[in-house]
Design brief:
TIM Barrel, Four Helix Bundle (Hemerythrin (Met), subunit A), 15 helices, 8 strands
């Protein structure tokens, strides 16, 4: 029996951003939000270093792996390997418009071939041991008319047993727009996603794209959607996650941004002792105090110093001292 995850709020998979260090940091801010890996290609997992690509800290749960690919056999092999790591969900990427994805004929390009998507997820479902197989898609690509093609896409994939879809409410233009432009230029069609939930009430529908606040997230949940996926806003202003447990999930938990930084110190120390560098973690923390007194100095201290040899927890504490204190900040642990 698959464990059903609460997807009322999740942090989107973002290439080069949502690595294991980012997810561990976000987990200090929220115990309930579902966290996603960067997209990892099935080929990389099958032929590469699985531990480097898939390893994560148990504290990151609930955590989902996003896979890219278009070869059912290779995707099944990747899921078989991923089983050993214990992800709570495995998500199939049918939405990324990057050049690398297009050249491999997967990601958003698969919106044109729903039958192949169905074949891929069948193979993934057969290989999975306990993790739900889900799909993240766009509303369409290029000259497709989303209102015409999206219902057929969802129905085709739902017919083979996929019950959970995260829908980025924008088209992807594979010709004429860069991956960066594809995140902003195509207009959002939120109403279409709402209509898909009404058309397919038995499906779990999560909306993604352009969401920047918990107020917006609550608004979508109130309109009947099953979940909201926040992307860049959660990365550039991660403090919005501090209120997520209480406001979105109804869980009483109080933590300050400063305390979340203190709670990161043992993890940072362990990473450094294993041969890592501070900036591999601190780069994900730069936006934590956005809009707060001392935020600029926090960013400057970390940006200028975290890449240097010997940089460690002391630099984090120096940067933290620049930020106006919160009530109830506990003392830093002795490392």
């Amino acid at each position: 029996m698959l464990k059903k995850l609460d997807k009322k709020l999740s942090v989107a998979p973002m290439m080069d951003w949502t690595d294991r260090h980012c997810r561990y940091f976000h987990r200090q801010l929220s115990r309930e939000v579902l966290l996603y890996s960067e997209m990892v290609t099935a080929a990389a997992i099958v032929h590469g270093d699985a531990e480097r690509l898939l390893g994560f800290d148990a504290a990151e749960h609930p955590v989902a792996l996003q896979l890219g690919g278009s070869d059912p056999e290779q995707l099944a092999a990747a899921v078989t390997i991923a089983n050993e790591f214990g992800y709570d969900e495995i998500n199939f990427n049918v939405g990324c418009p990057s050049d690398r994805v297009q050249s491999g004929c997967f990601g958003a390009a698969l919106m044109a071939t729903p039958a192949l998507v169905a074949e891929c997820v069948v193979a993934m479902k057969e290989a999975s041991r306990g993790a739900e197989i889900t799909v993240k898609c766009r509303i369409g690509i290029d000259d497709q008319i989303p209102r015409d093609i999206l219902p057929d896409f969802l129905q085709t994939v739902a017919n083979v047993g996929v019950t959970s879809f995260a829908i980025h409410a924008r088209k992807a233009w594979l010709e004429g727009l860069s991956p960066k432009q594809n995140r902003d230029v195509p207009p959002l069609d939120v109403q279409l996603v709402l209509d898909m939930k009404r058309m397919f009430p038995a499906l779990e529908v999560v909306i993604n794209g352009g969401i920047t606040s918990l107020d917006q997230a609550l608004g979508f949940l109130d309109q009947g959607l099953d979940g909201v996926m926040i992307g860049r806003a959660a990365y550039h202003d991660p403090a919005i996650l501090l209120e997520a447990d209480r406001r979105i999930f109804g869980v009483k938990r109080q933590i300050s941004a400063q305390q979340a930084v203190i709670d990161m110190l043992p993890y940072i120390d362990a990473h450094l002792n294993a041969g890592g560098r501070l900036n591999q973690i601190s780069r994900h923390m730069l936006g934590l105090f956005a809009g707060r007194v001392g935020a600029r100095k926090w960013r400057r201290i970390l940006s200028e110093g975290a890449h240097l040899d010997g940089a460690g927890p002391a630099l984090i504490l120096e940067a933290l001292a620049a930020v106006s204190p919160d009530q109830g900040l506990q003392s830093a642990p002795q490392l």
